[in-house]
Specification:
Layout lengths: L4 H15 L7 H4 L6 E6 L14 H16 L3 E3 L9 H10 L3 H17 L16 H15 L1 E4 L4 E4 H11 L17 H6 L2 H9 L4 E11 L4 E3 L4 E2 L2 E2 L7 E10 L5 H6 L8 H11 L1 E10 L16 E2 L7 H9 L3 H10 L10 E7 L1 E7 L4 E5 L8 H13 L3 E5 L1 H6 L1 H14 L14 E6 L10 E4 L5 H5 L2 H16 L2 H6 L7 E8 L6 E6 L11 E4 L5 H10 L36 H14 L3 E7 L4 E2 L12 E4 L2 E4 L32 E3 L4 E3 L9 E3 L8 H4 L2 H4 L13 H7 L2 E6 L7 H14 L9 E6 L3 E11 L4 E3 L9 E6 L12 H7 L7 E3 L5 E3 L15 E6 L10 H7 L2 H10 L7 E2 L5 H14 L1 E2 L2 E2 L8 H20 L2 H18 L4 H11 L4 H10 L23 E8 L2 E9 L4 H10 L1 H7 L6 E5 L3 E5 L1
Parallel strand pairs: 1-2, 1-28, 11-12, 14-15, 17-19, 28-29, 30-36, 31-33, 39-42
Antiparallel strand pairs: 3-4, 5-6, 5-9, 7-8, 9-22, 10-16, 10-21, 12-13, 13-14, 17-20, 18-19, 23-24, 25-26, 25-27, 30-31, 30-32, 30-35, 33-34, 37-38, 39-40, 41-42
Helix pairs in contact: 1-33, 4-5, 27-28, 28-29, 28-31, 29-31, 30-31, 30-32, 32-33
The structure holds one RNA strand.
Length: about 1100
RNA sequence: GCUCGGAUGGUGGAAUUGGUAGACACGUUGGACUUAAAAUCCAAUGGCCAUUAUGGCCGUGCGGGUUCAAGUCCCGCUCCGAGUACCA
């Protein structure tokens, strides 16, 4: 009787579905049966319109094998499946066709289910979830409300209800709390708090909630009326339609995931995940330890009042002159000294003068900034020509300064007269115009991981977007700075990052003061500093940081060296080991690690800053301007968000006519007519009713794709009470978390991070009792397609077979792989139907024969047409998609399952080759034959011989180990070897074939069930005990020793395992072949490893 | 640049702690069966040189090293893949 896989597979798939064979038991159903739970989960698919290709089931097959194995091992296995059914493709399809996304999603799911069912997965479909079902997203909304109602306490490292924070505020304000919050919160006392209105209180609380509304910078495309993700922008234009994109601030919901940075990082240590995924998360979280330091800004001189014009009047190159000016001050000429004696300390009728002051790119001798009067004396520093003096005066005039010049002689001989002239002039002048500096800005906070290099600071750089930039920029530099900011705004963040080589920046004209040396430090802006990381400002240490170094070189900023015995003439010295600090006051001669500690100590004890840990992880924007997503359970009262009461969930997605944003740029939900919340009747009502007293507008954004997928693993745990709870306590206590998770590694920093975040949050608030969602994870590789190409003459309508290409320029064109057989022969007729544009083309066959349209293409067998093959990602656009349905039709589901496993290590990417399936199909046929004699099922009840037992137990051992290690490709090989050996032995004994059937059932469940039934069992094989390996069947008395000479194996020799080392050596040396190899030489050494090898050296 | 993987026949891959490199398949070649094809079965298949042989030499990306013995361990490269990126 032949192996009719189609009938067998259909029969058992039906059986499993009817008997609910794979239904997992809830704890209360277990009764006496105290099976331990085991939860195996696949990352649920997004049901796309394209259906499944042969690459998709790879992970599902692996997890299915594992699930079935665990059932054989007597676990209560939970192995569910569902659909991540909200998402962009359905919405885009809806925009194009007007079809409701729910409709297409439903159709896609139906198709997915049909395809999945054909492969024989042991899913418990009773627990299916769909993220777009209101009964599911009710709980996604519920979790959002819990997040809104929570804040994060850093001291306790957990989330707590917001009501606890209100109590803290009532008792002591916000001065001494250590909680996660926005960074722009003003301090307030308990009295302040009680004096606030409830709206004010709400505004403040919003800055502490774990999900909050905030102005976020987004890529806004006015033409498309939507926000674009970074990868939807190419060269500053939208990918679709090439419309301009601008950075725009929008009110968006954000998730305060940054609060969990430390726990997300430390939690990784205990997970059985691959190092590469853990590393990706560690990088993403990006913890760096260092210090935050405050650099005071010199813009606000003491004692001059707030009406005084700016102190800083230097130009773009002024930083180069600072040192010179200092020198000049220290070493004045005689004339300067005399005049300064008379001017300093507001002696001259209370007018304050400064000496050797920077204005634009000049150092002027004296200046009264209030009146804008410059006094210059001729001396050793002014040997310039008259022309130069005039040019200089001209520039100073343009900057709003009057210039008076006196000769040395005049000052020395007629000081009184000079002073009088100056005073007269001063009194005749209006106050110089200047912006009033704000009182709030006290300095620039920077974050550094290298506080030890603080004495190497020679400038500071702010991100162009930094709030302080506008405040500190001097009038002289205003134009340059504004121009620069304008230029950077035009570039998207991504472009900026891509173009690392070009060094750009501009001097603000402002100076900060070094906290230790009190020296002025020029403040620049540059786009190599990111507003989004740290404080958006850096203390630049060019000798120790390559980017600072490059910037300094480019703008000719000094590069002081603070590393002992290092050469920084070519590049910065960024190493942390084997060097000591120099030119750094109290840090001199300290090795770097000690210097860091000392520097932090000094910074803290002087009040310049404090030690700080910084994380790269940013809060996640949670709003999308889309239709096909979860609606927020939020309505707005006076612009303040309010949550809909939990009792009234779900808030269903409204119906709209078109799925595009509105004409006014609102998200698609802005098109809904019935989208207002009636707080009296607790229901959604028409927008017309909005009165802002009882009826309020609802949120128009929807949640992002990762909302629903961040908690679905817990939803599967519940069966009955799905409407009352997202999962009952009993169920959560029993199943705990996912024991084994299977999916692609592309979710390393998305889904896998967000679900860890939500799990931790739900645990903090007592809704879950596990800290992590997924204990062990397997990341399957991608199955690649073997694309087929024909070669077309670039200049003629001629298409060539692989080996018939003449010396002309050709172009490769994809041919659908379904038109190519396993020998790479193309079905030309099919190709013309597939690409009608070539219906008039000539086809040059392998033998040079030319076929063209009109001829009988069936005659193509007179010569073949071959395609060339190339491995590419499997995708519709490359016409290399292989449909699992076709494989099931032709080879069977069991063959498909075995083949996908047999291809290679599961985590590795590898090309699909349909031809290879004949190997596994042949194996299944051989397996089938073991149980049959011709057409009859024949199994002997006599006892099997030793060899058969040895083969069986060898197989049990290897397969058990392989499944545990997830080396599923080698277990398929092992089965092949086993069946080959048993065939050789003509073994048809029940005591061998029955365990073999169980052994193979996780891999090829249909054939196993069929054979099991034929063996006389009337229950499914699914819960049979897995065969246990017994050592005794493998015990050997002899070993075939490889005998090697100088490490090279020359021949083998079978020897008794009981022999001692000496006996083995003797036996080997007696061999004629040994003597032949030695050719009369005496071996220097003979290495004998009993049971392994003999090596003769000499 | 940084982080993590990887490189073995014509192809996918095996070799779990250093111990017979190439398991198991695909493909190819030859043969049997057949009117023929399919299916099935048998044999060969890393390269080179031999062929009277149970024969010799070379072989796991490249160059060194450790060892009786290296695909496996160490040092230095090259190339490929993935992730991430001016992270201060």
């Amino acid at each position: 009787m032949a192996y009719h896989f189609n009938d067998i597979e259909a029969k058992w798939q039906k059986y499993w579905a009817e008997h609910k064979t794979f239904k997992a038991k809830q704890p209360q159903e277990l009764g006496e049966d105290k099976k331990p739970p085991f939860y195996v989960l696949d990352m649920f698919p997004y049901p796309s319109g394209a259906g499944l290709h042969v690459g998709h089931p790879l992970g599902y097959i692996a997890s299915d094998i594992y699930s079935r194995y665990k059932r054989h091992k007597d676990f209560n296995v939970l192995h569910p499946q569902g659909y991540d059914s909200f998402g962009l493709p359905a919405e885009q399809y809806a925009i194009q066709t007007g079809q409701h996304p729910a409709k297409t999603t439903k159709a896609n799911i139906k198709r997915y289910r049909e395809q999945l069912d054909r492969i024989g997965f042991s899913f418990d479909w009773d627990r299916e979830v769909r993220t777009s079902n209101p009964e599911y997203y009710k709980w996604t909304q519920w979790i959002f409300i819990q997040l809104f109602g929570s804040y994060y306490d850093y001291d306790e490292q957990k989330a707590k209800p917001i009501s606890a924070l209100v109590e803290v505020f009532e008792q002591g304000g916000n001065a001494s709390i250590n909680v996660a919050c926005d960074d722009d919160i003003a301090p307030f006392t308990a009295e302040d708090w009680s004096s606030y209105s409830s709206d004010e209180k709400e505004h403040i609380l919003l800055k502490y909630r774990l999900t909050y509304l905030a102005e976020t910078e987004v890529n806004w495309c006015p033409a498309l009326g939507t926000v674009l993700a970074n990868d939807e922008i190419v060269n500053g234009l939208s990918e679709r339609g090439s419309h301009p994109v601008v950075r725009k601030k929008m009110k968006q919901w954000s998730m305060r995931i940054s609060a969990y940075a430390e726990r997300l990082l430390s939690g990784l240590d205990n997970l059985e995940w691959t190092d590469s995924i853990k590393d990706a998360q560690r990088n993403w979280i990006g913890k760096s330890v260092g210090a935050s330091v405050n650099f005071p800004i010199l813009a606000f001189p003491e004692g001059e009042g707030t009406t005084t014009p700016r102190y800083m009047t230097g130009g773009n190159n002024a930083h180069l002159l600072v040192e010179k000016a200092q020198n000049n001050r220290k070493n004045p000429t005689k004339t300067e000294a005399v005049l300064w004696e008379a001017l300093k300390g507001k002696q001259l009728s209370g007018f304050k003068f400064r000496q050797q002051h920077l204005i634009d790119d000049f150092i002027v001798d004296f200046v009264c900034l209030k009146k804008g009067l410059v006094i210059e004396v001729d001396g050793k520093y002014h040997e310039e020509t008259k022309q130069y003096d005039e040019a200089r005066t001209d520039i100073l005039n343009k900057q709003g300064f009057e210039v008076m010049r006196f000769t040395n002689e005049k000052v020395l001989s007629q000081l009184e007269e000079v002073l009088e002239k100056i005073l007269t002039k001063l009194e005749s002048l209006q106050d110089r115009k200047g912006k009033v500096p704000p009182s709030g800005a006290r300095g620039i906070d920077v974050f550094t991981t290298r506080p030890d290099t603080i004495f190497g600071v020679s400038f500071m750089t702010l991100a162009p977007e930094h709030d302080l930039v506008k405040q500190i920029t001097t009038p002289e530099q205003k134009e340059a700075v504004e121009h620069y900011i304008g230029e950077t705004e035009k570039r998207s963040e991504r472009d900026r990052l891509a173009d690392v080589k070009t060094i750009t920046g501009v001097f603000t004209g402002a100076y900060a003061e070094h906290p230790f040396t009190k020296e002025p430090i020029p403040i620049w802006i540059g786009d190599y500093v990111l507003a989004s990381y740290g404080t958006g400002a850096v203390m630049a240490v060019p000798c120790g940081d390559q980017r600072d170094y490059d910037f300094a070189k480019h703008f000719d900023i000094p590069i002081p060296n603070i590393f002992k015995d290092t050469d920084i003439s070519e590049q910065a010295f960024a190493e942390k080991d084997n060097t000591q600090i120099a030119n750094s006051d109290f840090l001199n001669d300290l090795p770097i690690k000690k210097a860091i500690k000392r520097a932090i100590h000094e910074i803290e004890s002087n009040g310049f800053g404090k030690s700080k840990t910084n994380y790269r992880l940013r809060d996640a924007v949670f709003s999308r301007q889309r239709y096909w997503g979860e609606p927020f359970p939020v309505y707005y009262v006076n612009g303040l968000p309010k949550m809909i009461d939990e009792k009234h969930l779900p808030l269903n997605l409204p119906e709209i006519e078109k799925y595009l944003p509105t004409e006014t740029g609102e998200p698609p939900l802005g098109r809904a007519d019935v989208w207002a919340w009636d707080t009296e009747h607790h229901k959604v009502v028409s927008n017309a009713g909005v009165n802002h007293t009882t009826i309020f507008p609802l949120e128009l954004n929807t949640m992002p794709g990762w909302a629903g997928s961040s908690w679905y693993m817990f939803r599967y745990m519940e069966t009955d009470k799905r409407n009352e709870v997202f999962a009952s306590k009993e169920a959560l206590d029993y199943w705990q978390n996912v024991d084994f998770y299977v999916g692609g590694s592309e979710h390393a920093t998305g889904h896998l991070l967000y679900s860890r975040f939500w799990t931790k949050f739900l645990k903090d608030r007592g809704f879950l009792n596990v800290e992590e969602p997924f204990k062990k994870m397997l990341n399957q590789g991608m199955i690649l397609g073997e694309s087929a190409f024909v070669k077309k003459d670039m200049n003629a309508n001629k298409i060539y077979s692989e080996n018939a290409v003449p010396a002309v320029e050709v172009q490769k064109i994809h041919a659908d792989v379904n038109l190519v057989n396993t020998s790479n022969e193309l079905d030309i007729e099919g190709f013309i139907k597939f690409r009608p544009e070539f219906k008039d083309a000539e086809f040059v066959l392998q033998n040079g024969k030319v076929l063209s349209f009109g001829e009988d293409l069936g005659e193509a067998s007179n010569g073949t047409f071959l395609v060339s093959r190339e491995v590419e990602k499997m995708s519709k656009s490359k016409y290399n998609v292989v449909n699992p349905d076709d494989i099931c039709d032709e080879y069977g589901a069991d063959a498909l399952r075995l083949y996908e496993m047999f291809l290679g290590p599961i985590e590795q990417s590898k090309p699909w080759n349909t031809a290879g399936l004949s190997g596994v199909l042949g194996f299944l046929k051989k397996l089938w034959k073991l149980y049959h004699d011709g057409d009859n099922f024949v199994v002997s009840d006599e006892s099997a011989d030793k060899k058969a037992f040895k083969t069986l137990h060898k197989t049990i051992k290897k397969v058990t180990e392989d499944i545990e290690n997830l080396s599923l490709n080698t277990s398929v090989s092992t089965f092949m070897i086993c069946v080959n050996e048993l065939t050789q032995l003509k073994c048809n004994h029940r005591e061998i074939l029955e365990p073999l059937c169980v052994l193979i059932s996780p891999f090829a469940p249909h054939i196993a069930e069929e054979l099991w039934e034929k063996l006389g069992h009337n229950e499914s094989i699914a819960y049979e005990a897995f065969p246990i390996f017994e050592e005794k069947y493998l015990v050997e008395s002899t070993k075939v020793y490889p005998i090697s000479f100088n490490g090279k194996m020359k021949f083998t020799l079978e020897l008794d395992l009981s022999l001692s080392k000496a006996e083995i050596e003797e036996a080997v040396m007696q061999q004629e072949r040994t003597q032949k190899q030695l050719q009369g030489r005496t071996p220097k050494k003979v290495i004998v490893v009993p049971g392994k090898i003999v090596n003769i050296v000499g």
